[in-house]
Amino acid sequence: MRILHTSDWHLGRTLHGVDLLGHQAAYLDHLVEVVRAEGVEAVLVAGDVYDRAIPPVDAVTLLSDTVARLAEHADVVLTPGNHDSAIRLGFGASLMRPGVHFRTRVPDVGAPVILDPASRGGSGGQVAVYAVPYLDPDGVRWELADGCCEDAPDASEAPGPAAERRPLPRSHEAVTAAAMRRIGADVAARRESAPGDRLRNVVMAHAFVVGGQASESERDIRVGGVDSVPAGVFGGVGVDYVALGHLHGPQKVTVPTDVSRGTTGQGGAGGTVARYSGSPLAYSFSEMHQKKSTVLLDLDASGEARTELVPAPVPRRLAEVSGTLDELLGEAGDAHTDDWLRVFVTDDSRPTEMYARIRTRFPHALQVQHRPARGTEREVVSVVGSGRDPLEVTHEFVQHVTGSGPRTSEAAALRTALERALASERSA
């Protein structure tokens, strides 16, 4: 089966105040075209479909339209991430058309979506997709408690059903491991019931897996100081591919097949392949060097997972440029006039009308900072007491902020302001 793995669309997000919905729509047009042109049979969206729990109306409309277009060519499975509201993303899931699966309920983690190519005229084998929504430890540590933990009470000593369980530890590792135990049990049961049938298995999960490289724009999911999930949690249960979401840089994660033996899997009979698809757009300057993409996954009859990265369209490049104002307004800035920019102006003194002149030269500049090129000096903190001359203090402040003292006209303006303030106090 050919599967497209994507995540972290963050529909409705802005970049330093710039509305990105049009660029996100362009990416989704690209996604639909890839599905059509590459004969994709299933699309997996591993969380953070929206950027916030209550998305703007335009973002909801865009998602609805995109899912309808994708469903014309492939099955679609979506799960919420830590930015989404599981309730809002899953609203009306039972009313969706065949082939569209919003999997937002935690109790469903052990019940797969069975994708059958024959339903769309294909000839490949079935694939079981276990969709794991973002698991907030505080919200699900009771719901996923299943008696499998070391501290679980002996059921024979428990006075009743409610006392037979204890909450899972307050960590992402604990709740994800509990979800994977349910998935492993279901995989084993299906293989036992049909020993000759090699059902291929895929897990979708939205989590920070140990070994992944984070960037600044992923929202912190730390709870109780434990925010990561060891990659070994996904190994050893018969899963062929793990479609990860949360980290915005496309990357592969090594999953140990047998933690005790230290072996690693490469897919199929050798183990589990796990990968982050990354976000379709750069959502912070920390992502400006990432090559955004979507994962094209091929699962063969043995379950071997082969992946290929399909480059995502780049609506506007993110870049960083620094120099004196004269340098930036000259040749040094020629290559960046159409970029989303972070600009560092290195003049020793803050140039007059710096921001306005930069924005005229670079209409898409998102951040402009004055960062003098001189070496960083040790900051000297002095106490400003009542005996200090207020005018002297203001001059020192101007020196500290701009790198040079006030000009004659500025000093006159400061003196006038101070005199008016003193006069106002005397007349009060």
The strand count comes to 21
Could you tell me the strand content as a percent range?
Answer: 15-25%
**CATH architecture term of the largest domain:** 4-Layer Sandwich
CATH class of the largest domain: Alpha Beta
CATH topology name of the largest domain: Purple Acid Phosphatase, chain A, domain 2
Which regions are unreliable across 5 or more consecutive residues at pLDDT < 50?
148-160, 222-226, 259-268
Mean pLDDT reading: 83
State the domain count. 2
**In order across it, which strands form the biggest sheet?**
6-5-4-1-17-18
Structural class: alpha/beta
Shape: elongated
Oligomeric description of these chains: single chain
Q: Calculate the terminal CA-CA distance, rounded to whole Å.
A: 82 Å
Major sheet attributes: 6 strands, mixed
Please give a structural write-up.
The chain has 428 residues and is α/β, with parallel strands linked by helices. It has 2 domains: 2-311, Purple Acid Phosphatase, chain A, domain 2 (4-Layer Sandwich), CATH 3.60.21.10; 318-427, no CATH class. It is built from 9 helices and 21 strands. A 6-stranded mixed β-sheet has the order 6-5-4-1-17-18. A 6-stranded mixed β-sheet has the order 7-8-9-12-16-13, with helices on one face. It has a 3-stranded parallel β-sheet with strand order 19-20-21. Helix 7 (354-361) links the parallel strand 20 and strand 21. Helix 1 (21-37) packs parallel to helix 2 (57-71) and helix 8 packs across helix 9 (408-427). The termini are far apart. Residues 315-400 form the Nuclease SbcCD subunit D C-terminal domain. Residues 1-94 form the Calcineurin-like phosphoesterase domain. InterPro entries: Calcineurin-like_PHP (IPR004843), DNA_Repair-Maintenance_Comp (IPR050535), Metallo-depent_PP-like (IPR029052), Mre11_N (IPR041796), SbcD (IPR004593), SbcD_C (IPR026843).
